[in-house]
Amino acid sequence: MPLIKSISGIRGTIGGKPGDTLSPLDVVKFTAAYGTWLLQQHPASKKVVIGRDGRISGELIQRLVISTLNALGIDVIDLDLSTTPTVEMAVTFEKAAGGIILTASHNPKEWNALKLLNSAGEFISAADGAKILELAANDEYNFVQVDRLGGYTRNTTALDQHIEAVVNYPLVDVAAIKKAKFKIVIDAINSTGAIAVPALLKALGVKDVVVLNGEVNGKFAHNPEPLPQHLSELCNEVNKQGADLGIAVDPDVDRLCFVCEDGSLFGEEYTLVAVADYVLQHRKGNTVSNMSSTRALKDVTTKHGGEYTPSAVGEVNVVNKMKATHAVIGGEGNGGIIVPDLHYGRDALIGIALFLTSLAQSKKSVKQLRGSYPDYFISKNKIELEGGFDVKKIFDQISTKYKNNPINTEDGLKIEFDSDWVHLRTSNTEPIIRIYAESSFETTAENIARRLMQDIRESM
């Protein structure tokens, strides 16, 4: 089973040989390298925030990380069960040198990861990540003597601070949400969404809430990635309960998707589109999403007089592009919402609050809101990689085949076919090639994806 080192952190499966998986030795090694890098960057600040999702391996990884940081002389502020955006915000709340989030995000229960943050509570850059990997490869870290060991503090208020910041965000209308008297079903996927999302809804004045998979035990009731094929239970329950909408989050609560009142899916690609549409009605400006995301965001941005810019896939790449273009809203088509004047990180909680505000103020149903946006279809596929494949060679061969089409190689390979497109790229989080194709027609998108998957297989 794999160990993956990328801008999305140090990620791997639990169990197996060191160097091949996220073994205890690897956790200590990479935590020590990160801590050493932080001390080099911030010699006067020896404070790191950590938090974890509800995974089975979470407590084990948590203990290893705390002890390793303490052994470097670093003070740990432990949020324990938390969310990725909460840890990001807590880094700034605590004026810490950095943070580590213990989560493998959408990956199945066998996985865990160390997601590494800088002093701004943002994911570290690729260059900084490379320095940390170099430190780890060369064992370049020194542990302190016994009288200089770091301290430990438990923080139980960070989620409350996060929710308070969301509730007080200028574009969140708590009075309108409360007046709407929404009935909402949540799929919390047996992780910390079961803690955070109900607490947020309560703060927003939503009283009628049904929680599915609400026991925080890491034994995910279904594949934790919030994709259509995994959300049938939520769709059925929305219908059964006569609810106004359903909400699904991933295990670390940085991705978000909605279910309409009739049990149909709003579409994870349209989470960002809907939230951006609401924000742009009140704040004129630019938007960013990664190049695997729907072009509907570009349509909405243009309608409001702004400029849309695509970025490479990966939250840090989206954030960098947002900063460069002064975007007022951005994110990823996987349901990740980034509201820059709250914090530069994907955050399902602010996404929920803004979406509910939009619904409450417009007095539209979720289905009516979805109907106000163009229908584009993205076919999302993947091919698993085994050792020995030269991905660059594969992409070069495909580029040659489609040399007469517009091609973008900023992140993998994106090919345009008139108004349709396909994007091929290796994943930051799994040993796979992702193949995303979009068209105004579902069958066309699927046919483009199938054609390119065949091209990949023929090039292997």
TrEMBL record:
SUPFAM superfamilies (alphabetical): Phosphoglucomutase, C-terminal domain, Phosphoglucomutase, first 3 domains
GO biological process: carbohydrate metabolic process; peptidoglycan biosynthetic process; UDP-N-acetylglucosamine biosynthetic process
EC code: 5.4.2.10
Pfam families named among the record's database cross-references: PGM_PMM_I, PGM_PMM_II, PGM_PMM_III, PGM_PMM_IV
InterPro entries: A-D-PHexomutase_a/b/a-I, A-D-PHexomutase_a/b/a-I/II/III, A-D-PHexomutase_a/b/a-II, A-D-PHexomutase_a/b/a-III, A-D-PHexomutase_C, A-D-PHexomutase_C_sf, A-D-PHexomutase_CS, Alpha-D-phosphohexomutase_SF
Keyword line: Isomerase, Magnesium, Metal-binding, Phosphoprotein
Coiled-coil region: none
UniProt domain Rhodanese: residue ranges: 162-228
Cofactor names: Mg(2+)
GO cellular component annotations of the record: cytosol
Single GO MF annotation: phosphomannomutase activity
Family: Belongs to the phosphohexose mutase family.
Protein name (Swiss-Prot/TrEMBL): Phosphoglucosamine mutase
This protein's encoding gene: glmM
